[in-house]
Design a protein that fits this description.
Order of helices and strands of chain B: HHHHHHEHEEHHHHEHHH
Number of helices of chain B: 14
Number of strands of chain B: 4
Order of helices and strands of chain A: EEEHEEHEHEEHHEHEHEEH
Mean pLDDT of chain A: 93
Bound molecules: adenosine-5'-triphosphate, magnesium ion
Shape of chain A: globular
Number of domains of chain B: 1
CATH class of chain A: Alpha Beta
CATH topology of chain A: Rossmann fold
CATH architecture of chain B: Orthogonal Bundle
Largest sheet of chain B: 2 strands, antiparallel
Radius of gyration of chain A: 18 Å
Helix content of chain A: 25-40%
Structural class of chain B: mainly alpha
Oligomer: heterodimer
Number of domains of chain A: 1
Helix content of chain B: over 70%
CATH class of chain B: Mainly Alpha
Strand content of chain A: 25-35%
Radius of gyration of chain B: 20 Å
Low-confidence stretches of chain B: 321-325
CATH superfamily of chain A: P-loop containing nucleotide triphosphate hydrolases
Largest interface: A-B, 30 and 25 residues
Distance between the termini of chain A: 33 Å
Number of strands of chain A: 12
Shape of chain B: globular
Chain lengths: 241, 325
């Protein structure tokens, strides 16, 4: 049996009167890409953000490699090896690509930022990934939507994550770029034996890339499907039921 | 055809470079003003006038350094003029009435400025009141304190060591040297350190910075503290120029300081701009004033012209897309 890397138990979260998540539990295994689908407002992003330490849950527990973790800030989660691609990128348009990729994790020598080293590391990573980013010194403001999304993805891949949380990571990418990104992610997850959670609305891509599919509705997980046993029509019915 | 695309691509590259280097727009404006001065009022370039200009620019430019941090981080500080007034009065009282050395007095007012800045920061970050409102409040309170502790009276300072700061060293007023030192230190901080980067990042996308686990409340507090400290130094320097503490000194300076920052090309929405750009902005505003005086344009008209310059600068930035987030 494959080992678990992340376990979520009984997570609930309300925003004022809105109950975004009620009693959500899931297990993510090493080397697994788990997909979460659901209608708009089902609670997918909220769940990922709780795992990433952005929100703290009202109740419930999170276990990373079987040890309970309580993140006080997203930095705690990142230090523990959890990296997230946010649905709305979370980039700073006035910072350049290098600054955005290393934001919160800058390399310093003494008191001063070591941009030379950061650029060197980033260039090497870009060679591996074959991402089409025009220049790492360009301000993100001047990049296209798809290129911005690549920067957001790049940021999560820089620091050897244990768990990758991808909230609609390819929504702005061309068909070719999406395939490239998802193949890379899939391969990374398999070779490094890390875990990935993948939220998307493209059901064909979900079936193609994920190892397992969870369906969410109104803040609950209501079904689990294996990609080879289901099809987009059934998934839509489950989401909408 | 091939030539055409080559040139149009070159043009695009140049345009992008121009838009991405924060100082270029304001520098272009400043060069325009220098040319204007050469044509209209050549006396502008007399050494005595340049020395005087450097003295004039110092107070606003020092305060603008701190204000730039606040604006770059996405807030605004309206209390700078009042902090200038309070620092001016307190430094004068400490030196004239309590026999503080000028350096101890400087250190004291810097501390007071820092505390006022931190208070601004805490109201903004902890109590979540917009900085515009918070600092409008401190503007009034701090000015009131300056009036109370001075009893509304002017305080002349006869300390020689203090007044000597008004002298000129290598053709440059000592107070301008003080500004240059502050500019170098703060530019190093802003461009080369983590916290400096976080100031710009917070102004650019506060939520992103928070979601990545950076303590952006701390960053905002720091910007307000810098602003308070810089304004206090500016008030002290103003005291050197005046040879006294005036409770109404610095009145309305917040507008000049903010104008310097904005004309320098720092977007009021935060994130874009630099301290060097702010320095250029302070020079633009002060030079225009100087040229108008040399050209014999009256004080009332000067207000109109300065306001128009501010509007033109804002327009130039809007067209460059700086205000579009
Ligand atoms: N910060 C917040 N404050 C208040 N309500 C929120 C907040 N974040 C999410 N919600 C609410 O929680 C519910 C779940 O939102 P969430 O963003 O998790 O949905 P989602 O499944 O990611 O939707 P989508 O597919 O549209 O991205 C929604 O009703 C939303 O309005
Ligand atoms: Mg979402």
């Amino acid at each position: 049996m494959v080992e678990e890397i992340l376990r979520v138990e009984g997570i609930s979260k309300s925003f004022g009167a809105i109950k975004a998540l009620s009693d959500v539990s899931l297990i993510l295994h090493k080397g697994e890409l788990l997909a979460i689908i659901g209608d708009n407002g089902a609670g997918k992003s909220t769940l990922l953000k709780i795992i990433a330490g952005v929100y703290s849950p009202d109740s419930g527990k999170i276990f990373l490699e079987k040890k309970e973790v309580k993140f006080k800030s997203p930095m705690d989660a990142r230090k523990a090896g959890i990296e997230m691609v946010f649905q709305d990128f979370m980039l700073c348009p006035d910072l350049n690509v290098t600054q955005n990729v290393f934001l919160g994790r800058e390399i310093v020598s003494g008191e001063f930022l070591n941009y030379k080293l950061m650029k060197k590391i980033l260039k090497e990573k870009l060679k591996d990934l074959k991402f089409d980013i025009p220049s790492i010194e360009k301000k993100v403001r001047f990049l296209s939507g798809g290129q911005q999304q690549m920067v957001a993805i790049l940021r999560t891949l820089m620091f050897d994550p244990k768990v990758l949380l991808l909230d609609e990571p390819t929504a702005n990418l061309s068909a070719g770029a999406s395939e490239q990104v998802m193949n890379f992610v899939k391969q990374l997850i398999k070779t490094k034996m890390i875990g990935g959670i993948y939220v998307a609305h493209d059901l064909n891509a979900i079936i193609r890339y994920s190892d397992r599919i969870l369906v969410m509705r109104s803040g609950r997980i209501i079904a689990e499907k294996m990609p080879e046993e289901t099809n987009p029509v059934e998934l839509v019915r489950l989401m909408r039921l | 055809m091939a030539r055409n695309t080559f040139y149009s691509r070159l043009l695009t590259t140049i345009k992008e470079k121009y838009a991405s280097i924060d100082e270029l727009k304001s520098l272009t404006g400043f060069i325009g003003i220098l040319i204007l001065a050469a044509v209209v009022t050549p006396q502008f370039y007399l050494p005595q006038n340049i020395t005087m200009l450097l003295g004039q620019v110092s107070v606003i430019a020092i305060a603008a350094l701190g204000e730039a941090f606040v604006i770059l981080s996405g807030s605004i500080d309206l209390s700078v003029g009042s902090i200038i007034g309070l620092a001016n009065v307190v430094a004068a009282i400490l030196i004239a009435q309590y026999n503080f050395s000028p350096y101890m007095a400087l250190f004291s007012v810097m501390t007071i400025g820092g505390i006022i800045g931190l208070t601004n920061g805490i109201f903004v970050t902890k109590l979540r009141i917009p900085s515009f409102v918070v600092t409008l409040g401190t503007l009034t309170v701090v000015r009131g304190i300056a009036y109370i502790i001075s009893g509304g009276l002017n305080i002349p300072v006869y300390n020689e060591e203090f007044l000597r700061l008004n002298e000129v060293l290598y053709g440059v007023p000592i107070i301008f040297w003080i500004y240059l030192i502050a500019l170098v230190i703060l530019t190093l901080f802003f461009e080369k350190t983590r916290l400096g980067l976080y100031v710009r990042a917070t102004g650019s996308n506060e939520l992103a910075v928070r979601n990545l686990g950076v303590d952006n409340s701390g960053v905002k507090n720091l910007a307000f503290v810098f602003s308070g400290v810089c304004s206090a130094i500016a008030g002290y320097v103003l005291g050197v120029r005046l040879g006294a503490g005036y409770p109404h000194s610095g009145l309305g300076y917040e507008l000049d300081v903010i104008a310097a920052v904005v004309v320098g090309g720092v977007a009021l929405t935060g994130g874009t701009g630099s301290l060097i750009a702010t320095a250029i902005g302070a020079f633009i505003m002060t030079s225009i004033l100087n040229i108008m005086v040399l050209a014999g344009i009256g004080g009332f008209m000067q207000y109109v012209v300065r306001g128009i310059i501010l509007l033109v600068a804002a327009l130039a930035m809007r067209r460059a897309g700086v205000f579009v987030k």
